[in-house]
Each structure stands twice: as C-alpha cells, then as structure tokens.
Write a structure and sequence with these properties.
Helix content is 22%, strand content 31%. It is an alpha+beta fold and 162 residues long.
Length: 162
Amino acid sequence: MELEKVDTLEKNLTKILEYQEEGYLFHGSRMNNIEMLEPQRSYDVDSTNTFNNDTAVFASANPQSCIFALLDREKMPEEMQKGTVIVRNRGNSLLAEIPSRWKVYIENNVGTLYVIPPDGFITEEGGSWQYKNRKPVVPVDKISVSFEHFLRLGGKVIWTEE
C-alpha cells in the first residue's frame, strides 16, 4: 500500500471515529456528489416491517453497516450475481459471510460515507442500528471509503464457498 494511501486511510478513519463519538449518523452511497439526501422509498423483504417500508432518508450510527451497503453487484458478471450475503451485528461490529467468488469485487469496492446530524431522525421502538428521517437532510461532511475502511473499523468477513 502506498504511503499516501495509508495517510489518507488513517485520516479518514480518524474522522469517522470522531464523528461517531460526537453522535453523528452515517449514510453510504456510490455517488460522491450529493449535496442533500432526499427521502427515498424503501422496501423490506418483510412486508410487515413498517419502519423499513417507508419513504425516508435512512442512516446508521454504525459506519461499518453503511460502508458494507456499498456493495455494487452491478459491476459483477451476471452469472456471479446469484448468491447470499449474511450479515450479523456483533455488538459494535459486523460479521459478513460472503461468497468467495465475490472477493475481488468486494475488495475493490469504493463509495462515499455521508456524515449527517442526528436531528430529526427516529429509530424503531426498542432501538435499532437503523435510523430514518422523512425530511431531506444536508450532510455535514463526506468521506471517501473502501472495503479497507470496513475492516479497519472492526468489520469481519468470512469468505464462503457455494
């Protein structure tokens, strides 16, 4: 890894952890030019989950979950897109089980982590890793992130054979 990339990685990790400590929320996107996050329609596989089946800006207090969500299956060859990803929340870190044939795509995945103020966000009754706001939200910062950020923030991966 080049020295400049290491310096940038370390600076970005420090910024993310500082924002997390200050109580900010995070939103991941493959787009790096968003000035205002607009509410988007979301559908949960569980149609009874009214929290997720809503039009809102969704965010998380856990930056790992937002970075992991940047997985871009569209860049994979179609025959490889079939497969299952299992993600488990282990306290302050995520454990992901991912088909090993996706490894090259996951490891080269990049995106933007938007830092957003928690004002106006709600979470499910009983608490959740996910928050939502039905109004547009202006990010206070954006940070370029990669799979390496996910790992360095404590995320773990088990590469599975299918």
